[in-house]
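During the second year of the project, the team shifted from modelling isolated chains to modelling whole assemblies. The rationale, set out in the original proposal, was that interfaces cannot be judged from single-chain predictions alone. As a representative example for this report, we include one of the complexes processed in the last quarter. Its constituent sequences, exactly as entered into the pipeline, are reproduced here:
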Amino acid sequence: MNLSRAVEGLIALALAEDLAQGDVTSDSVIPATLAARAEVLVKSPGVLAGLDVAEAVCAAVDKALAWQALASDGQPVAPGAVVATIAGPARSILAAERTLLNFVQRLSGIATLTARYVAAIEGTGARLVDTRKTTPGWRALEKAAVRAGGGHNHRFNLGDGVLIKDNHLALAGQDIAGAVAAARANAPHTLRVEVEVESLAGVRAALAAGADIILLDNMALDMLREAVSIATGKALLEASGGITLDRIRSVAETGVDLISCGAVTHSATALDISLEVYTV
Amino acid sequence: MNLSRAVEGLIALALAEDLAQGDVTSDSVIPATLAARAEVLVKSPGVLAGLDVAEAVCAAVDKALAWQALASDGQPVAPGAVVATIAGPARSILAAERTLLNFVQRLSGIATLTARYVAAIEGTGARLVDTRKTTPGWRALEKAAVRAGGGHNHRFNLGDGVLIKDNHLALAGQDIAGAVAAARANAPHTLRVEVEVESLAGVRAALAAGADIILLDNMALDMLREAVSIATGKALLEASGGITLDRIRSVAETGVDLISCGAVTHSATALDISLEVYTV
Amino acid sequence: MNLSRAVEGLIALALAEDLAQGDVTSDSVIPATLAARAEVLVKSPGVLAGLDVAEAVCAAVDKALAWQALASDGQPVAPGAVVATIAGPARSILAAERTLLNFVQRLSGIATLTARYVAAIEGTGARLVDTRKTTPGWRALEKAAVRAGGGHNHRFNLGDGVLIKDNHLALAGQDIAGAVAAARANAPHTLRVEVEVESLAGVRAALAAGADIILLDNMALDMLREAVSIATGKALLEASGGITLDRIRSVAETGVDLISCGAVTHSATALDISLEVYTV
Amino acid sequence: MNLSRAVEGLIALALAEDLAQGDVTSDSVIPATLAARAEVLVKSPGVLAGLDVAEAVCAAVDKALAWQALASDGQPVAPGAVVATIAGPARSILAAERTLLNFVQRLSGIATLTARYVAAIEGTGARLVDTRKTTPGWRALEKAAVRAGGGHNHRFNLGDGVLIKDNHLALAGQDIAGAVAAARANAPHTLRVEVEVESLAGVRAALAAGADIILLDNMALDMLREAVSIATGKALLEASGGITLDRIRSVAETGVDLISCGAVTHSATALDISLEVYTV
Amino acid sequence: MNLSRAVEGLIALALAEDLAQGDVTSDSVIPATLAARAEVLVKSPGVLAGLDVAEAVCAAVDKALAWQALASDGQPVAPGAVVATIAGPARSILAAERTLLNFVQRLSGIATLTARYVAAIEGTGARLVDTRKTTPGWRALEKAAVRAGGGHNHRFNLGDGVLIKDNHLALAGQDIAGAVAAARANAPHTLRVEVEVESLAGVRAALAAGADIILLDNMALDMLREAVSIATGKALLEASGGITLDRIRSVAETGVDLISCGAVTHSATALDISLEVYTV
Amino acid sequence: MNLSRAVEGLIALALAEDLAQGDVTSDSVIPATLAARAEVLVKSPGVLAGLDVAEAVCAAVDKALAWQALASDGQPVAPGAVVATIAGPARSILAAERTLLNFVQRLSGIATLTARYVAAIEGTGARLVDTRKTTPGWRALEKAAVRAGGGHNHRFNLGDGVLIKDNHLALAGQDIAGAVAAARANAPHTLRVEVEVESLAGVRAALAAGADIILLDNMALDMLREAVSIATGKALLEASGGITLDRIRSVAETGVDLISCGAVTHSATALDISLEVYTV
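Output from the structure prediction step:
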């Protein structure tokens, strides 16, 4: 399937900011007709994501660039792995280099970090899910990278999931029961209703209101365990807040169904990947 | 001055991905006419960046939102600092919340990390400069965040600086002298010519070729010191590669003029900032 | 809240197609400085929708046009009702006229038709919901018009609801149980899972698979009643197919929870609304 | 010839609103590599329009989809007719399904309704023409659908035809002679000048002013006949207002040259067309 | 009335190409808070056009810039005339300077050249009209500039005028009568039909075919006079080809109705206009 | 390499303004299936530029058009030269004709005028450079046309070169030394610093301040010679202001390094090129 128009638009923005005035070095030094080939080379261990975006960057720079993927998103890779090759005009390879690496490094960084969190809870019943704390303009790409890393997606945006938070209750001057009822009355019936709570009383109120999912915000492990004993099987339970690699397994072992974690998107760092260019 | 059309475009992408179907929770629970106010609250120490983008996000969500900045980009802040307030329709504040935080958290994260690198070389003559390893679509914003953190900008793109790398020489089959001459002949006279070298022989060849700037790639400290002794005053010297917070001061103390560092953009993590919403 | 960028984009398309070459009649005949006022006049009974779009059309044509709404979306109106006034340059009023009417007539047509369907099932427990059979480019607007007419929205798009149809089962070579399990495993936990069935056996299979919603496709009233007796309280039941104004009440009286109807969007006709222009 | 950029833009809007978050059902249930084929199947009698748009939707969803048209725009079709086939990845066919049907159903609905009006006046000398009462964003497509149905186009927009209406005269404080003279003096010489009148006096004034076309607005049949006896051969005569399928033939038989009808675009309903999907 | 979206888009392109990376000189040298004022100063005699575009450039650069027009499009100006003032942030004035001048200089150049052609035929009955030989992206602006210079517009594009040329006849294998009949049958009735001819036989054939306008291509003065004697009063006559300032009056004096001239758009040069900036 | 998105955007604007409503003449007269071929024929001597844009126009009109270039940008051509051929649907060739000619005529006009200036200074050491006085929306294209004519580019925009003018000094209340120091401190180190002066005192101050380039604005030949004797070898010297074909060689012979000339872009006229269309 083609990349979405939104991702094509992001690629266009990216190329505009790097190439709007051309590549003055290559244009000065390298003959227009020179052909070359290149390898996308992994330099740190990690999990791949964004290869299709890199391919689209090449196509957007020059239709004459031939991209061949040698690996796929979601695949763990070791240093030294060549995950794709590019062949075509030398100037075009150099023009595409930085932008394609910037995409694939960031997305693979997210997949890699996600995979670490997922590995940490392996064997527990909990599912790692992302948040809306994504890089503006990158949400679909970053959510796909989370999936590549073995995580799952929470809602994509404010329209495809009901999540009633403290702010909603405080602003609306409503209790949980009233807010859940309002959501049931107004929101599409295709969406589950989730309620954020910070206490066991909140858990009980959300259950009573018929919430489908209860977000347990910033609870200590003991309280999480109690919440599970109260609500398990009656609603999905999602732990959230302060989820670190050190702590996530103990959170999962409380028996929650889901653990949401902003860090996998907002605090991932680039995976080290480079482009090696060769004469042909 | 208005934000650029490119940044407005990125904000539009960001709002589309979060709000294209509206905010089903707020629309169900919160009255359309309810007013509220909010505070942008810093929760970790850092350096601010992106406040103007956050203001523009508010304006793009609802012209009725009143943003008041209480701090400015480049300012160091402590946990508990309120750096801006927002007043207006409650639904609109909640609709803008995540997107504006995603912008200001990432940009402040970059400013904060940059400031740490800059502090590490304080008092040496070296200038910290960024690279083109920025988030696609975000270059101008991230380069501004680097400046907010006290860093300086390297070239913005492939058109506003000549940087001859090994790849250029290898592909063109030219030596440094030939490549510099080609750049002088073809590139705008307003641009300096920079040459990447990996050895002292390269430094000498670049000097002989009349390079304005020499990029010393991945050199050990001893070699950097020798490069400085050879070339200082004849060309600007830029150290690059493997620049970490631990190592940067010793690099700076070799006497180089510039140190370029990709990590400040590709490996910064979000600064912890939240939105506190209140009834009015 | 501002209109979304997508709706602004649709307005821009609409004005481009009507005004790209200016208004050669008004420019020839009417002085540039002449002021006028106008009334948006309803000529057939109906329910209003799209007034905010009409206001945005005026603003997009000329910032000097002053729009004042005298009614609001969702309001039933009788012939002769003046639902908004416009004041400003005469040429600008005439330039905006056709485009704003085209928007508000179509959207009010949808709200009006929806209101008829909703009235027909008043007092039954069933909820009228729309479909994805909307005018391409108009989905958010048409779904808002359905709400203005008293209907409810089904999913907005292919990403915010799971709906397993015959095609999915046939193509995947899976039974309902397998498909529901796959959806649970892969789709965000915030979404309910809906399954389309055409028989009572299908209803039972969907229930057994744990479907949250069962779409009863093109069933006769008797079968609908049996489906309700089997599944009510265990899953939401949605009737679909061949829903007409004549038949909808008997469908609702079978006890289904939801009735989805494509006609309210794909076969609504324009409500008769005109613009009366006056000298000032 | 390629579709225009405006139509490509409308297709992009349409796909964004249906697919911005992907297709969560197909992605969960159907293997990425599964191939399928589909038939575009007519279920009600009508006239086709928009097949090229449907093809472009397929290409915009996935370049790997192969579209083969088995009929062409303007062709009358009976229930059961397969008018096109699609082959390619199953997920892509399902992703394109709703959007391509929404386009072709609406446009064929317009062609079908137009064809009924055209048939009603067959053998009279009158030509059925459309109006600017089109769906915003769809003008070129809907005007092409009118042509597919055997109708003709009136002006496309406010810039490619001079049409002096009562509003122009009232606002400008001019009589018909003055307004026609102003139009002649200012408008491009390539455009005919049309004047709207509501009385026989108006017809005579328009003739005296040298109008090329006279729009006879909302006239009874008797008055139309008199207008024809006064003006035929001296100006083109266009009847307008209250044109229904019942009445149009009697209007045509008065001898007018043109009959303009908003209903063919603003009140057409979707033609019933579906997509049948098969395994391969 | 607002500028069209197309012109706003052209302004956005223009600012992107000049300001995408900011103004590195002003940002380095001039304080962000410094205010200034500026005058748009005419340095050569000419006719103004494009002032509204210049104002829109200022608004697009910085909403804080206050533009005050002291003259209007179509007005003849002498060296030394100040035609507008700007007040606001100094950096913003300098950022807008070059782009606004580039617009107003080019458009005023066209108005100025047009005015010379119009003056040359003053008192003859002929009307100077432009062509489609405009700068791509600038058609509406350049046609407005022609009007500002006292000229008139020919058709705007390939859709708002029928012009049958030799190529059409040759490709279609039709004579003039057949082609005119085809145009009458297919094109909107609001458009006149124009035929290009190169001989008196062509004039007679076009008249016989009922052409509304005859384009007399590259005819000598004698032939033009004969064409006028044959066709005047029966069709509009438009002379075209090789129209220079030296020759245009003698062409007009043959009695043709219209003279079309590509040079006024494709060969106009910039009017000398500058921006004088002052401290406040 | 593909054309940039900005140029593709300009082509889209151009086609929209010519073809948004189709080609009513060709659609009426020429069969949809008729094939034709065409030649791009030079009618005046000049230097080519913009052939790749013309090719892209053809592709944007109809993917079925086959473009074959017989010459290349920068090549001098004589009247009668056929520089490209087009084959494909006759309607598509006629639809593309005017837009592609408008591009290639204007760009070749710039290349031709540039080549005259370059020829005038042949053998002197001076380099002809362009300015930012380009057609808004066309900068990259016009700067490429200057290179095609043998000229060189000055900075592309306000971000890729530091040029301190009188306005900067006056507004900032700084002398040259202060302004140059500020630029060194704030601007990227990859950019040279240029200072505009109008006197020999200015030359000396700029040299003392360490300017890399000195722009000698509107100096008489004697003063230029003195400036050269003062500064040659210490800074690049660029003459500017009042550069005409008559005067440029004497300016070059003063020994300046660069001569910048706005006329090559703001006052170039179209090169005469036409499209000859043939039946096949």
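DSSP finds eleven helices and twelve strands in chain E. Chain E touches chain F through 76 residues (CB under 8 Å).
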